[in-house]
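FORM 7B: Structural annotation worksheet

SECTION A. Query
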Amino acid sequence: MNENTPLRIGLIGFGCVGQGFYDIVRQQPELNLVVARIAVKTPEKPRPLPAAHFTYHADELLADTTLDVLVEVIDDAAEAFRLVSAALRQGRRVATANKAMLAQHLPELVQLQAQFGGTMLYEAAVCGSIPVVRTLDQYFSHEPLRAVSGIFNGSSNYVLTRMSEEGSDYAAALAEAQLQGFAETDPALDMGAFDPRSKAVILAAHAYGTFLETDAVLNLGIEGISAVDIAYATAQGQKIKVVASLSRLPNGHLTALVTPQLVGPESPLYGVEREFNGVVLDAAFAGKQFLQGRGAGGHPTGSAVLADVLALRRGLRYQYAKQSARPEAQLTQGLELDAYVSHPDAGVLREVLTWLELPAEALRLTEAGGAYATGPVAVQQLWAWRQELRANGVFVARAGEARVAAPVAEAEAAVRA
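SECTION B. Predicted structure
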């Protein structure tokens, strides 16, 4: 499309991101973009624009063929999938920020693009303002990647920063994050590491060409963290961060997990604080790259939406270039990691050690009356007991990345020999 011709945009959703995007477009008339129609769900909700600017039926935007691009920024994953898939069946151009929807339905959506000729971009779905999706899809489209890891959720990172700075407990830090607008009223998706898991699944499609099943990726959150755990990390010269990791194992398989991790000053993630996100790319030939930026907020995420809209006008499409050589996924079986496990009640932790097959002598009591233990744990055990760990308020952090367990590695080496 000629950039001198106004691009007519249909905006579905007018929450934090939708308003941020609208404001950015309004401040840059030279871009020649027009938000022609806005669809929202709740008529009675107070909004900064007159009611005449809105329609309350998103399907009206799907039926409006005068709209050049549809922008979907709602928080309902099921409704987002219905709208985006319908738009792609019409061969439309769509920008979306719904990471949960994408992680659950990406293979189907990619197929719809190929079948009907539509285009879907979603930079805003991962790490807010950081251009990591396009970097992986284009710049590293044909370079092998050893690993992609990072802090993909600003809400949990803000809580961890405040606990480290003030020595406050989890509840107080979470309440502050909610007051500042960095955490939702229901923080489960962020604090339970479900949100960064969705983002890791999306990145796996671009970094490795592999479509992972979201629910098969281990995610552990920070709901059970206490000041004792922060103090333990500090004593080790480390910080606790929720880190999403994608990496190639020595056997060539791809593994992925999202958990709290003990991070030292040698890592660029050590200095990523508050609501910021950070991504480390480890490429075979280019070496390590580090990207950092605001991971949430109306203007940072709205900026990523704008970048996608402009890219759609230029005809950009994601390549998914690595699909033909995608590695096999190995997510839990035959893997282990070095774990730190804690609970305020030593009796509870003794039982947890049996779940995770850690020896009883690994248990250490704290001055506050709680307990912790460290040692190698099979990822399969963490996966098998993940719901019980969460339900009982057990905190688990890893030191380093998952690795092939020693007996498995020896067997694989023997086969190769």
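SECTION C. Observations
The longest strand covers residues 239-248. The longest helix spans residues 99-116.

SECTION D. Sign-off
Analyst initials: ____
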